[in-house]
Amino acid sequence: MAFITANWNPLGDTFYRSAELYEMFWSLRDGLGDSLVAAAPYGGPIALLREPLRRSPSTRPQLEIYSASGASIASFPWKSGPVVHLGWSVNDELLCVQEDGTVLIYDLFGSFKRHFSMGQEVVQSQVLEAKVFHSPYGTGVAIVTGSSRFTLATNIEDLKLRRLPEVPGLQGQPSCWAVLTQDRQTKVLVSSGPELYVLDNTSCTAVYPPGLSPQAGSIVHMSVSFSYKYLALFTETGRLWTGLSNLQERLSEMDTKQAATPKQMVWCRRPRSQQPSVVLMWDRLLLVVGSCNDTIQFPLEDQSVLVGELDGVRIIGSISQELLQEVPLVCQDIFKIASMAPGALLLEAHREYEKSSQKADEYLREIKEQNVLGDAVRQCVEAAAHEYDPDTQKALMRAASFGKCFLTEFSPDQFVTTCRELRVLNAVRESSVGMPLTHTQFKQMTLQVLIDRLVYRQFYPLAIEVCRYLKIPDYQGVSRVLKHWASCKVQQKDLTDEAIARAVCAKVGDSPGVSYSDVAAKAYECGRPELAIKLLDFEARSGEQVPLLLKMKRSQLALSKAVESGDTDLVYTVVTYLKNEMNRGDFFMTLRNQPVALSLYRQFCKLQEPQTLKDLFNQDDDHQELGNFYVTSSYRDKRLEGRLAQLQSAVDEYNKAKNDFAAKATEEEMRLLRFQRKLDDEKGAGLLGLSLQATMEALMSLGLHKQAEQLYRDFRVPDKRYWWLKLTSLAEKEQWEELEKFSKSKKSPIGYLAFVEVCMKNNNRHEAKKYVSKVTPEQKVKAHLAVGDLEGAADAAIERRNESEMGAVLSRCSASDRLLMDKLNRARVATAKK
Fold it and tell me: Within 13 Å and on the Cβ side, how many CA atoms surround 576?
């Protein structure tokens, strides 16, 4: 703790520090010389291509991918064309830009993903220089060709090439250029001799940096800050100009006293930076130039690479890696010599407390007297977040915890959150993981992206531990990690299908948010269909199983799964797919093995494809259903001959099915149709298509009683039905004399109460009374009541000595029927005594 400020270097009013991140794992025999090197920001991986322009087929360049700590991730010989530039996308994909304008994209593990071209005209003119940049639209690529033309793609995921206007007088490669992103527009800043131009989609505009001295000479190097807000220009006379990237304001200009063009120039600043600076690197010198015109010099022992970060610069060497950054203000306040800031006093108080010294009380009293104890705790927590060394973090957090004990109303949220975040950051900063994230970078990239990166690099146990430690919901955390793990597991070629399926099931189990069908789909993509089927057996949702099985051409299994699910829509989906994919015979045979599917398909055919339904029945020799089909079809035929032919076919099929009842009923239907046709021709009755009962009703309503009686005899219509039909028909036509004759023709099978009720229904009390005397004794009371004869009903009820009938008559009596009511009451009493 006493030497925390030992590596601080003053720059104007602030300090810069250099912290060692790693001793690199790699062993580079020739260092980083004669190599293309690309390191991704936010502690990303490092790609290294040795001798990129080597063209000998016998000794190909080697492309190597390392973690930020130098641990090897992938390595393979480069078999494509000469590479001009390497860069990383926002998704940690490696972009290799070739001389012919082809951009090849590899994943973190060296697997080829895809490629695209920067334009056909580039093949002839060749790429002289390229840059990979990040914009609000995603990852972009910019190139300059041998014809001195710039081509731009702002988003490689949605490729749209833009050829920028020509630069006046530019021949060959420009002395330097940079990509700018301003107001969601991507532009190119180009230096051509003493001139400076801004290229956009439509124009080339000459610009001049404000305040740049005329003696500065041509601009030979330029650099844009991480946020694209600031610009640095280095001239041939060694002068460095800094200002806003829109070239509206100058920050500073100074003479670096270095005539040689720097190998790299990178901005070093942090959010809310007090003293932004530019880091320039030559072979053996690293120069930090602040906007205050002060400088810091660091000697370099070997060749290095600078990587601009959100809050500093990573310096990658062949032996070690360091982070150069401005010391955060809160850290300066606490650790500066003789600092009296609240955080510094609290840290000192805790030190004395651990020594059991009474000075701790004096420091605390001083803080309390100034009423800044809360500020002191917050300062210690904030400073701990910015420190890279775990021991320094612990000292600050313990001091903050010590100070919290003396506060009654202090929210612990910031303290708890910072503790958790620091534990996560310390875990990912380990050399074995190799992600040297600062707290500022972590907050910018978000926890979700950090987990994605751990998963992408296959640090699954660590990713799961982070998710559980930070209590991330399963569907966003553990389940997502397990899904990615399972998708990678199925690609392992050294394990059997059975072993992988068991391992995936044991690890994933019933984790919410993990779809076995997605994992199975990945297995199928990798050429392991049997493994995919085994994994689908663990999928609980049939709706997820079936589509993949169909894609795999496992139609029988897909149909079985669909039937097991009980989802008719899913069954219909599979059946429709099979119908389109298989020949007719195989399709029908497949359905025969699945009765549920066959039944559903028959329902479908009934509504949509009746002819197919007939073919199904024919193939199955199902004569009963064929007969039913012909009967149903006959109703759709408008011509009598066609209908009779269909019905005759139905009779034949019913006979084959030995269904005598159905055959006879169909034959009688045919007889009825012929009878109806005959009467239609003779009388124009319009009977065709009516049922037997409707035909008889129609005949009677037309007065064709003889023909109705003929049907009654020919079709053996039950007597009761015939009598009811004729009774109703005669009453409705008010043929009362015919009705009376009909009633006397023979004993009525439906009784005579029906005559009474039908007459009353047709409002003829006089006719109704004629039949009351013929009604059986049991129905006499109802008959008398139907015609409104209360006296007769009372006499009949008393004669039968039936209490319920007497009660029914009483209920119909009114106050004016007092004598009748007394008579009934006396009869009820007498009946009750007996």
Answer: 11
